[in-house]
Design brief:
This protein is of the alpha/beta class. The chain has helices at residues 2-6, 22-36, 55-58, 71-81, 93-97, 101-110, 155-162, 175-187, 201-207, 213-223, 230-234, 252-265; strands spanning 43-47, 62-65, 86-91, 115-120, 123-124, 130-131, 166-171, 192-197, 224-226, 239-246. It has a single domain (17-263), classed as Rossmann fold, CATH 3.40.50.970. Keywords: Oxidoreductase.
Length: 267
């Protein structure tokens, strides 16, 4: 039912490679929207450029397909002009934390009420498999044929440090968990970040000899663990999943409205 109600069927079949994790993210997003009972007219989806950005073309919401790295800047304009709308911003590695890194930091700092979904497949997929700020030391890519020597950003830690008031992480293996996180992120009154680790079998998987898509998906189960688990204590290299931050602070649009009222009153 969610698929029929919320997608633009005329744009299918989609352009993602077989086994790409972004389809799972789209599925989780649609299920979250369905659970919330939101009208399509209550949602604006803003994306930049890249494999992940194509989500905005497949959903039958108000949507903007904008410039590389500038999705959060456009989304900020939408939210300030129409604060009653639910603004969702799907992004990939580069869109969020390379060319879009500056916008990411300031959207979090302002605590503007929108939901950033960061699909972390550790590579630039659409442009040919270049390494990204999330590839990490030792990762292989077309532009790192002898392995990357760049340390990786941690999406969760950056979001926390920059001031995001809802921060969560899951994987394409944990689709139901993703749905719950996106659901709660949309409801949250502030800047929400949901990192979803996704597989790119075409480039990252092939370059790093991680097998086919099913192997990569299973790997997410093996290398992650819930926050504070005993497994994490026994194996510190495991990546934690869950909600890392959930707190209430003044939301930017609401505070901006107060400034407008103060200006009107001459205070």
């Amino acid at each position: 039912m969610a698929l029929k109600d919320y997608i633009r069927e005329r744009f299918f079949p989609h352009m993602w490679c077989a086994g790409c994790g972004h389809g799972t993210v789209l599925n989780s997003l649609l299920r979250a929207v369905e659970q919330l009972g939101l009208s399509k007219n209550e949602i604006v989806m803003v994306s930049g450029i890249g494999c992940s950005a194509r989500i905005s073309g497949y959903v039958d919401f108000h949507s903007l397909h904008t410039l590389h790295g500038r999705a959060l800047a456009f989304a900020t304009g939408v939210k300030l002009s129409k604060p009653e709308l639910n603004v969702i911003v799907p992004m990939g590695d580069g869109d969020a934390l390379a060319i879009g890194g500056n916008h990411f930091l300031h959207a979090a700092r302002r605590n503007i009420g929108m939901t950033a979904i960061v699909m972390n497949n550790k590579i630039y997929g659409m442009t040919g498999g270049q390494f990204s700020p999330l590839t990490g030391i030792g990762g292989m890519a077309t532009t790192a044929p002898y392995a990357s020597i760049d340390r990786s950003f941690d999406v969760v830690e950056i979001a926390k440090a920059a001031g995001a008031t809802y921060v969560a992480r899951s994987t394409a293996f944990h689709a139901q968990e993703c749905t719950k996180m996106i659901h709660d992120a949309i409801l949250h009154d502030g800047f929400s970040v949901v990192e979803i680790m996704t597989q790119c079998p075409t480039y990252y998987g092939r370059k790093n000899k991680l097998g086919e898509a099913p192997d990569m998906i299973k790997r997410f189960k093996d290398i992650t663990t819930p926050i504070g688990s005993k497994a994490k204590q026994e194996n510190p290299d495991l990546i934690e999943r869950g909600v890392f931050v959930e707190k209430n602070l003044p939301e930017y649009c609401a505070e901006y409205d107060k400034i407008i009222e103060r200006a009107k009153g001459g205070a």
